[in-house]
Design brief:
The protein has a single domain, classed as 2-Layer Sandwich (Metal Transport, Frataxin, Chain A), CATH 3.30.920.30. Helix content is 36%, strand content 31%. A three-stranded antiparallel sheet has the order 1-2-3, with helices on one face. The chain is globular and about 35 Å long.
């Protein structure tokens, strides 16, 4: 399991920035090939595997790519 804070740190390493926050949910964005990618990361202690998967897919990251960012 991985925490939301670690996911946020990894996404920042990949070029994402914090665009907004509503409660414990943090909206992150990145410009990629003329498109704006947006992901929502819950800042929880542990993220479920499905939640992590739903973050990585719109971020255009494979699990291997993500692990290299940690």
């Amino acid at each position: 399991m991985v925490s939301g804070r670690r996911v946020i740190a990894a996404l920042r390493t990949d070029g994402f920035y914090v665009a907004d926050q509503e409660g414990s949910h943090i909206k992150m964005r990145k410009l990629l090939a003329g498109r704006v990618l947006t992901v929502i990361v819950p800042a929880h202690r542990e993220l479920a595997r499905d939640t992590l998967s739903s973050i990585l897919k719109p971020a255009h990251l494979t699990p291997a790519d993500f692990m290299s960012l940690l």
